[in-house]
Amino acid sequence: MATIDVNGTAFGYDETGEGPAVVLLHAAIGDRRMWDAQFTALAATHRVIRYDRRGFGETGGETGEHAHYEDLLALLDTRGIEQAALVGASMGGACALDAALAVPERITRLVLLGSGLTGHTWPDHMQADFARLAAEAFPPGRLAEYQARKRTPGPADVRAIADANLRYLVAGPERDVSVLPPGMVALVREMCEQVYRHDWTAPQWTEKIPDTRHRLAEITTPALVVIGTADALGLVELSRHLAESLPAAELVELPDTGHLPAMERPDEVNALLRKFL
Fold first, then answer.
1. Which of 11, 97, 126, 252 has its CB surrounded by the most CB atoms within 10 Å?
2. Cα–Cα distance list, 115 to 141, 146, 155, 179, 182 (Å)
3. Helix, strand, or coil here: 226?
4. Cβ-Cβ contacts under 8 Å for 214 (sequence gap 6 or more)
5. CA distance 90 to 59
6. Which residues, other chains included, contact 91 with Cβ-Cβ below 8 Å and sequence gap of 6+?
């Protein structure tokens, strides 16, 4: 693994292949390792870049005010890339949408897998599910202590929150983790534990939140919206909303698939990417 300096910060980063540029933007419960299958497959026809967002993986989270899409655009500038296709998973999809709105002339394609949306308000039922999972994972008040940096996270609690994410998001609320490939489960657990260890201990920074929610109709970049039907209902609803709101979007629903189809069904996702890109 390598790093690249962007705006004075060292970002974990990999690049391979030649051809039109495509950037892989990871989910908030992982890091750039989630793209192993796509990073290799797309290199046959594309210049492929993956990196760890600010505060994830090998990238530090310095204090101050930052925006993930501004880091993305600065990375493109650093590598001399004028235009790129963006493939974003979960909150990586939100970053891709923010970039497409900010500099539409630089983004050639959007692929949104189980995408988030910057500033989106999750439905009450989804927030209630998260609250229930936190209550099952921790004694009362402990999560708040971690979020406020008032308690050093123990290994058991880090594992508990990672397992909660595996059950609810990665497998999906109606499926058991046992349906997922074992190697995938091990890697997602490792990445997710790292996310929370960092989030509960590292210096805090403020994310600048662009108003993307109400401007989706302005994003005319061709888009492929992919959602696993076993994902949490709030995410399925959001993907359908994105497909309806983006003027040039196509929706693909993958049956019996959770929140990370790029890892759970890499061959199917790679085929979709090759065709769309």
1. 97
2. 30, 27, 29, 22, 24
3. strand
4. none
5. 19
6. 27, 28, 68, 116
Answer whether 222's CB lies under 8 Å from 110's CB. yes
The whole-angstrom separation of Cα 21 and Cα 167 is 34
Phi, psi of 166 (to 5 degrees): -60, -40
The pLDDT value recorded for residue 146 is 87
CB 238 within 8 A of CB 5: no
Q: Report angle CA 155, 116, 58 to the nearest 5 degrees.
A: 45
Q: How big, in percent rounded to 5, are the helix, strand and coil portions of the chain?
A: 45, 20, 35
CATH architecture of 3-121+206-276: 3-Layer(aba) Sandwich (3.40)
Structure tokens at 215: 């401007």
Beta carbons of 181 and 39 less than 8 angstroms apart:
no
pTM to 2 decimals? 0.95
Q: What is the pLDDT of residues 191-225, one digit of tens each?
A: 999 999 988 887 777 778 888 989 999 999 999 99
Residues with Cβ within 8 Å of residue 25, at least 6 apart in sequence = 53, 72, 86, 87, 88, 89, 92, 93, 95, 96
Tens-place pLDDT, residues 32-66: 999 999 999 999 999 999 999 998 999 987 777 78
* CB 67 within 8 Å of CB 41: no
Count of helices and strands (H, E) across the chain: 10, 10
